[in-house]
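Hi everyone,

Forwarding the result from last night's run.
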Amino acid sequence: MFGSINAQFIKYGVTGSLHRGSIAGIHNASKANFGGSVGIFADLSIVPNDIYDSAWLYLTPQLEVYTIGERASWNEDDNNRQKYNNTYIAVPIYLKYFMKNHGYKGDIYFMVGPKFEFLVSEKIEEGDAVNKAMAAGYDPAKFGLGQKADSFGYGVSAKVGVKVDNKWDVFVRFDRGLSKVYKDYAAQSTYNRFLAIGLSYYIGETN
């Protein structure tokens, strides 16, 4: 694939999104948190590009920082909630396909590819939840209390977007982790997930 990339045409820019996401499979009764991402990307054309900006298939690597977390309660009758907020540096690598309109590159595109992420910050606020669970006769580990997130993860990311003009795109994005966020938690598989809406802005290009 890399050998077939037409390096004569590369577009690059910045991107950001707002999402609602959570960590599935842990912390008993939980609610999703709002988060966001900001990053940089490059569209590297894969197909021949004899006409200016006519390529319809790209390889699009991206480097971003994003946050994800949730509010949870091990005891559903307790209004005191535990808070989990993680920050990652992530590298999604997309295939980007533009739909064609009468044989020409259209304005609607689809993107899908793997994502690799590295934990840079983990903020946990559990208060006295561990002690309360033990006092009630429960093992705190049953509810995922006291768990630490793994430093590395991977998953898949997908986008559907629309080219607004030569500079701006708007898109909807869904990410789903495939690796365990809490590798020492055996009760269920735990993974990151979020649904986002975002914008991309093209800074420049080479040709």
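The CA atoms of residues 45 and 58 lie 4 Å apart.

Cheers,
N.
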